[in-house]
TrEMBL record:
InterPro entries: FecR, FecR_C, Ferrdict_sens_TM
Protein name per the record: FecR family protein
One Pfam family here: FecR
Residues annotated as domain Protein FecR C-terminal: 318-378
Residues annotated as domain FecR protein: 180-275
Gene3D superfamilies: 2.60.120.1440, 3.55.50.30
Protein source organism: Chitinophaga qingshengii
Lineage: Bacteria, Pseudomonadati, Bacteroidota, Chitinophagia, Chitinophagales
């Protein structure tokens, strides 16, 4: 059996296993395929849940080897809506996601059996820079090198596509001139501020900042999501304003997710220390903690978190841990520049898993479907249907 036909065969078996329609003979065939060449064969239904992470990695290595990806392939782990799924169903989802990743690179998968729709591409580096005089520069189409000069500060597009501010007057410029970087849906961008602080902006985000920092604090304004690596300067606190909330830092790495359509402002600290201020309430964060400012009442909740979940977008992944379905779909909407349209009641449940952000939308749709989310892509829209 050829490699592609083999992948198709076990994709079919995986889907049957997931739906509970697989026959005992097909289940044995599927288990034999998984255990082929393994030093220690595994009884998948009985043993998977005892060491989930190990078996996920083992299954993916087998899939990747059979598909010819080698060891450098990014894992496409399933989005699991129910942690209490049978072990066989979880395994099936992983295998199906892996084999679909194979087909994404070899065949075109139509979005609808009756209507040909162009597959939505993943986001890319794109942004618009608005200078203090109102001039707008489309950064993704601008050439490398110096783009403009504001006061004594040069604005340079580097070869890697990022934006760099160079203060030729070494701090003598006042901070009365402001620039705004706007990243649309379907985009992301990186810039280096005059003090050397690095900022990554996610899709549908805006950052307003001075072209040079004064001798006082360093203040920027964020709408959307950004990851910051702040240059240390004890005498000049770095402040991020998000609506009525302020995040104050010295030198540290942290992520702020503050989209207006989310339930709160999420600040996740990787290292250093930050102070969250909302009105008269202040909270300090330690590394590995996340603060959530409730959009409705301004209450601040602080707790331990897995920081990789907050920064996965910067590293080229979607990662979810018991996130509700609308929140997951909002992330997909921003990255693929597509509107989410619910055809009836919003599906209930939570999703856990990870997939690479460089997949086309059709690949993500297939994984969503394996998670029990019924959806279909149309021109500029992703239709979500009630669970059957």
């Amino acid at each position: 059996m050829s490699g592609e036909k083999e992948q198709s065969r076990y994709e079919t078996l995986a889907e049957k296993w997931l739906k509970g329609t697989i026959t005992p003979e097909e289940a044995n065939e599927y288990a034999d395929w998984y255990n082929a060449g393994q030093a220690e064969p595994v009884d998948i239904p009985a043993s998977f849940a005892t060491d989930e992470a190990t078996h996920e990695e083992r299954i993916w290595r087998q899939i990747a080897a059979r598909a010819g990806f080698g060891n450098n392939t990014v894992t496409a782990t399933p989005l699991r809506r129910r942690r209490w799924w049978a072990a066989a169903a979880v395994t099936a989802a992983i295998v199906t996601a892996g084999s679909y990743w194979y087909h994404q690179h070899h065949t075109h998968v139509p979005a609808s059996p009756t209507t040909q729709v162009s597959d939505a591409l993943p986001g890319s580096d794109k942004a618009i820079l608005t200078l203090s005089n109102g001039r707008r520069i489309v950064l993704d189409s601008a050439g490398n090198g110096a783009l403009a000069q504001q006061g004594g500060v040069r604005i340079v597009k580097k070869e890697d596509g990022s934006l760099l501010y160079v203060d030729d007057q070494t701090g003598a410029v006042t901070d009365t001139l402001y620039n705004t970087m706007s990243v649309p849906k379907g985009g992301q961008y990186k810039l280096v501020l005059p003090d050397g602080s690095r900022v990554w902006l996610n899709a549908a985000s805006t950052l307003k900042y001075p072209v040079a920092f004064s001798n006082r604090d360093r203040t920027v304004e964020l709408d959307g999501e950004a990851y910051f690596e702040v240059a240390a300067s004890a005498a000049h606190p770095f402040l991020v304003k998000v609506r009525h909330t302020q995040v104050a830092v010295l030198g540290t790495s942290f992520n702020i997710m503050a989209y207006p359509d989310e339930t709160g402002i999420h600040t996740t600290l990787l290292n250093g220390a930050v102070k969250i201020k909302q009105g008269t309430i202040e909270k300090m964060l330690a590394p590995g903690q996340q603060a959530v400012v409730n959009n409705n009442n301004g209450a601040i909740t602080v707790g331990e978190t897995e920081t990789a979940l907050a920064t996965a977008w910067k590293d080229g992944q979607f990662r979810f841990s018991a996130n509700n379905i609308p929140m997951v779909l909002r992330q997909i909407s921003r990255w693929y520049n597509i509107d989410i349209v619910y055809q009836g009641n919003i599906p209930q449940g939570h999703i856990t898993g990870k997939v690479p952000r460089n997949m086309k939308l059709s690949g993500v749709i297939r994984i969503l479907e394996l998670s029990g989310i019924r959806c279909r892509q149309e021109a500029g829209r992703l239709l979500i249907f009630p669970s059957s």
